[in-house]
């Protein structure tokens, strides 16, 4: 925020002296998605659901934890970090992630290292929205609804802990 005094002002202010101020945005914006890669091709395809409740951690360039959020009901996260270099870590066990950087569209691939769940460092610019940093899971977490367990789908590909 910048504040200054002024000998005059505009609008409806009729005084000869005023205090003026303006707030400036100093953050960038990250929006991404954690998705279930049902066909394990490394790409978010139509019909592949987002995964709610996944922890997403934001680290600065010195790898200090700055923020932690959970993905919402459709698997999306939203962060507003300052300008600089950042790393995201999607929290899940190793081998739950799909392959990294598959396909030609960075908006649809997974950016999490399959062994660590971490992204490569990436820049954040002031007042710029980045929607390219996502994570694909090939294993469904236990906290997902039971609609994908073997009792409901007649398969044994995925089992939840929600067994009657």
Structure, described:
With 164 residues, the chain is an all-beta fold. It has a single domain (29-153), classed as Immunoglobulin-like. 2% of the residues lie in helices and 29% in strands. It is built from one helix and ten strands. The protein has one helix at residues 150-153, and strands spanning 2-6, 18-22, 29-36, 55-59, 65-70, 76-79, 84-90, 122-124, 129-130, 135-137. Strands 3, 6, 9 and 10 form a four-stranded mixed sheet that branches. It has a four-stranded antiparallel sheet with strand order 5-4-7-8, with no helix packed on it. It has a two-stranded antiparallel sheet with strand order 1-2. Strand 4 and strand 5 (65-70) form a beta hairpin. The protein is elongated. It starts with a strand and ends in an 11-residue tail after the last helix. Residues 143-164 have low confidence and may be disordered.
